[in-house]
Amino acid sequence: MSTTLTEKQRTARSPRKPGLLHGVTWLVVRQHRTALWTLAAATLLGAALIVQQRGAMSDLLDQLGWPGKDVTLSSTPEGLGYVTQALNSLPVALGVFLGAPLIAGDQEHGTAQLVTTQSVPRRRWLAAKLAWCLSLVLVSTVVLATLFTWWWEPYREFFPSDWMQGVVFDNTGPMLTALSLFFTTCGIAIGMLLRRTLRAMMATFLFAGVVEFAFGEFRDRLATPRVVTYPMNGDAPAFLDQAVEHDRWIGSADGQLYGWGTCSEPTEKATNACIKEHGIVNDVVEYFGYDQMPGMQWTGAALLLGGTAVVAVFILWWTTRRPL
Predict the structure, then answer these.
(1) What angle do CA 87, 137, 214 make, to 5 degrees?
(2) CA 74 to chain centre
(3) Fewer C-beta neighbours within 10 Å, C or N terminus of the chain?
(4) What is the CA radius of gyration of the chain?
(5) 304 CB-side CA count, 13 A
(6) pLDDT, tens digit, 9 for 90 and up, residues 100-139
């Protein structure tokens, strides 16, 4: 009597477990789990601080009777300074501490050579690292920017900075996310080229400082300023309270413009004579309206995201042509 044992056909590849984390994705998340938990904790802490500070400001203004009557806060909430400083530093910190070591650390410790000699294609491994890193930055910054915008927008008149300044413009809407993605991607590229973590972190910090300064100078070129004319020494239009003044002149009835200090004479009599001589009758203000803010932010964000895409493509192209 013979017995025949039947077994299921064995295959070389084990069935894939359900879920998102498998293969190269699991490897990348496992390798950078410390950065993942650190950024997640920082995001939760920042979100909690923003919610708490907004609630405190709301309660204070309710007690003072706002918006039913005019209110002036005697001092800026202490937590506001902490939040704005942290948000301003976040894009640079992400570029320095998350972007710069991402590939440079693997190159420095030999992990890149080990991984790329296995069966995983180099481009797939790099794409997984970029996708993981940029997705993490995207989620955290969208959460923080959304919450800060939620705090700032209804209470903007009580913030010490106008909407054109970096502490507001760069931290609300899409700007925080766009800046963070750009600096992180540039940090990855710098690390890839320099191949040393500490050197890449220092270079990324300097690069980010230069870009932030240049962007601050470029911010008022993201839209065309408007011009309003009203009688000299008369009441300015109410909408200028929420506008950011770009330039100011004095003008004659025929439309001729003169610098604001043209008739700044030492005596009132001399000033009146100068005004009469030039026929000056109007104040002329060049300004950016508050309603221009979203368009300016999305224009700036589009430029930064375009730069992010170009740098990401360069990283993938470079690493397929050069040894890691």
Answers:
(1) 55
(2) 30
(3) N
(4) 28
(5) 28
(6) 999 887 777 666 555 655 666 777 778 888 989 999 999 9
Rounded CA gap, 167 and 197, in Å?
A: 30
CA distance 324 to 117: 11
* Cβ atoms of 200 and 103 closer than 8 Å: no
Tell me: pLDDT of 2 over 70: no
| 210: nearest Cα among 133, 309, 95, 294 | 95
Question: Angle 125-131-28 (CA atoms, 0-180°, nearest 5)?
Answer: 50
Q: What are phi and psi of 249, to 5 degrees?
A: -140, 175
pLDDT attached to residue 120 = 64
How many Å apart are CA 91 and CA 145, to the nearest integer?
A: 12
Alpha carbons 252 and 259: distance in angstroms, whole number: 12
Q: Is the pLDDT of residue 173 over 90?
A: yes
pLDDT attached to residue 24: 67
Planar angle of CA 187, 317, 31, nearest 5 degrees:
50
Which burial class, exposed, middle or buried, applies to 58 when counting CB atoms under 10 A from its CB (0-12, 13-18, 19+)?
middle
Q: How far apart are CA 322 and CA 108, in angstroms?
A: 16
Give the orientation angle of helix 78-93 with respect to helix 33-63, to 10 degrees. 150
Give the distance from CA 47 to its chain's centroid.
16
Which of the residue ranges 19-23, 178-182, 251-255 would you say has the lowest mean pLDDT? 19-23
Single pTM value for the model: 0.86
